[in-house]
Amino acid sequence: MVSIFAVDLGTSMTTVALPLLLIRDYGTTLAAGLTLAIRLVPSIAAGPIVGGLLARRDPRRIAMFSSLLSALFAALIPVCWALWQIQILTLGIGLAVMLAGPARLVLRPAVVTEGDERRGNGLLMAAQRVSTLAGPPMLGVIIAIGWPLWIVFFLEAATSLVAVVMMLRVPPLPSAAGGDVESTGTKDRGLLRTAYVTSTRALLRVISVDAFMRGATLTSFSYVLAVTLGRMMLVVMGEQYHSDISGFYGWMLAAMGVGGLCGSLLIGRFKRSSTGTLYVAVMLIEAVGWLSLPWLADFSAALAVMFTIGIMESAGYVLYYAEVQIRIPRSIMGYYYAALIPVGDACMFLGSAFGAWLAGTSVPAAAMIVASVMGIPMLLTARWYFTPSPGGISETVSMRDGTKSAERRERHEG
């Protein structure tokens, strides 16, 4: 929890600082938008290979290595004097994020006990939301006292080093049973191609077995796109609608962080409620919240809506991660995330690259697009979240993997 808090604290500050820096110096141009989006390129291009890496290496060491890389690249941003230099360093940070995301997600079973998935994932999400809450106000204080914006990037480097130290205290992840999928192609010379195929196959098997995971996986892509568009819309709203309020974007993210903290802690109390009902409800409520923002002239009302959006966002993520831990066997969890995250990052790339331009054209139109992209896929897949899992995803996938492994052995012996 402390490691997650530290690394996300630095990220939450630079998430606010970098758009402000780019829009201040380069305007709401496509080049500035691409700079925000370029960090997603490594994950989109090579993210699936992380699944094979997690199957053969200690996820803790991968998470620590990624934090060291992130610290190095973040510390170099203040010395840049051209946009292309910032883009190169942002690409490097994207490489670190590509490794860190799946590694930290795979480590969750090492610290969250079986049967306590919803509460445990809620606490981990709370650590993230506390950092999201603390980061923007810290940036606001830095700006208010007259310190230069580039100091924030040195602070991100420092928090990444703290994350490395705390990761040493995380217990090792017990070896997972049923390693047939893990061993597939790990000694193949075409490692990159094999990793892509293995990760994609694992994701497709997961969504073919369980209707809930099929719906949650597919709508996660549209959700990430919608939220990224919405955040870029907030930047433009601050300039066009609330220019009299200093740090409007930071205040909105702070309100979202407070709501996220409350949502991650509260959702664990709904143990008897249907996961499907909760999941559909929080997503639709959040969509309505994004839709209402451009029509709220009052700053306090906008803060209240962002607080509600934060509750719904965190609750949805907790429900999702808890179901992944319950339904997906550990032997393929790394492959699942390695295939899932690059597609989500591709959606985030689109949102970062075009969100500011879209909102700059029309904020109300952008809000309607955000709500539609988030809400319509959820409505179309709603019935899947109430369909019982056919015998458990772990048994079904393991049986398929065992059958294919036996077939490969027979062909080899023949």
Architecture overview:
- This protein has about 425 residues and is mainly α.
- Helices cover about 80% and strands about 0% of the residues.
- It is built from 18 helices and no strands.
- It has helices spanning about 1-25, 30-35, 40-45, 50-55, 60-75, 85-105, 110, 115-145, 150-165, 180-185, 190-210, 210-240, 250-265, 275-290, 300-325, 330-360, 365-380, 395-414.
- The radius of gyration is 21 Å and the shape is globular.
- The termini are far apart.
- Residues about 175-190 and about 400-414 have low confidence and may be disordered.
Short description:
With 414 residues, the protein is an all-alpha fold. Helices cover 79% and strands 0% of the residues.
List keywords for this structure.
414 residues, mainly alpha
Number of strands: 0
- The computed structural class is mainly alpha
Q: Which percent band covers the strand fraction?
A: under 5%
Run of helices and strands: HHHHHHHHHHHHHHHHHH
Average of per-residue pLDDT values:
77
Largest sheet: none
Low-confidence stretches: 177-189, 401-414
Portion in helices? over 70%
Compute the separation of the termini in Å: 51 Å
Overall geometric form: globular
CA radius of gyration is 21 Å
Question: Total number of helical segments?
Answer: 18
